[in-house]
Amino acid sequence: MTDTEHRGPGVAKAVVPAAGLGTRFLPATKATPKEMLPIVDKPAIQYVVEEAVDAGLDDVLMVTGRSKRSIEDHFDRAYELEEALRAKSDTQRLHSVRESSELAQVHYVRQGEPRGLGHAVLCASAHVGAEPFAVLLGDDLIGRREALLKRMIQVRETYGGSVVALMEVEPEQVSLYGCAAIESTGEDDVVAVTDLVEKPAVDQAPSRWAIIGRYVCDPAVFDVLRETPPGRGGEIQLTDALLELARRKPEDGGPVHGVLFRGQRYDTGNKADYLRTVVEFACERPDLAAEFLPWLREFVDRNTADTSGAGA
């Protein structure tokens, strides 16, 4: 074991903030949590839980808010529905209904008011305790073939501290993310984070490497969050707490490293990207692609022709 290797408890718990109001998807999210919007026939939040489980984390804490009861119902047993499917010998749908309730040990805590991602993470402190933990945002879906979270946990085990997922974005997109100043570690996909700026202006961004919705946090983040004043938008920003940890030594909860992610990520946080995600997932489904792809090609060709004709 090298001097830089972390000695301590491993990552065993995942925190999934799910208390947002989902205003960009109104009126659909007036009574339905945005996390429950379907990606074909499975709610987006189930893909997030499956990712955590695939990385070895079967203890999942949902940080919820008002009108989120359907999330709890989804990850619970539905005995009447199961019995109805069993009576019809519909084993395929019966399995799909049971699958979500058997994925993980899912726990819940309420975020009383929407005070930002940092506050949502702080709501998990009693459940997480003094252990490192992962944070997975429901707006970001990572391709099933990727092993991003597993890699981040490995980096935590090697370097200690906290780990963020970084993805290179176009210059005009940096103001949508927290962006990192980075230094090489000698590993192709691992960097040291030296600065973090939440949603910077294009000319003030430290780089084009943006934080996407995956984190592995040292438990020291909780004490920092308790002392972190509201930042941009009047919210407690997780980025601000991570910047403080990036300046610390390992014995004080630092440092912060980044995993440079170049794989497949799906952003479901706005309508256009949500629709693209649904289409991509449908095209990858063997039970749908044979019928859906020919229709999609014909639809695109027809609309392309109509557009060309309109401009003639």
UniProtKB/TrEMBL annotation:
Gene (UniProt): gtaB
Principal EC category: transferase
GO molecular function: UTP:glucose-1-phosphate uridylyltransferase activity
Highest taxon in the source lineage: Bacteria
Enzyme Commission numbers on file: 2.7.7.9
SUPFAM superfamilies: Nucleotide-diphospho-sugar transferases
Catalytic activity annotation: alpha-D-glucose 1-phosphate + UTP + H(+) = UDP-alpha-D-glucose + diphosphate
Keywords annotated in UniProt: Nucleotidyltransferase, Transferase
Residue span, Nucleotidyl transferase domain: 13-276
Protein family (similarity comment): Belongs to the UDPGP type 2 family.
Pfam families: NTP_transferase
Name of protein: UTP--glucose-1-phosphate uridylyltransferase
Keyword Nucleus recorded: no
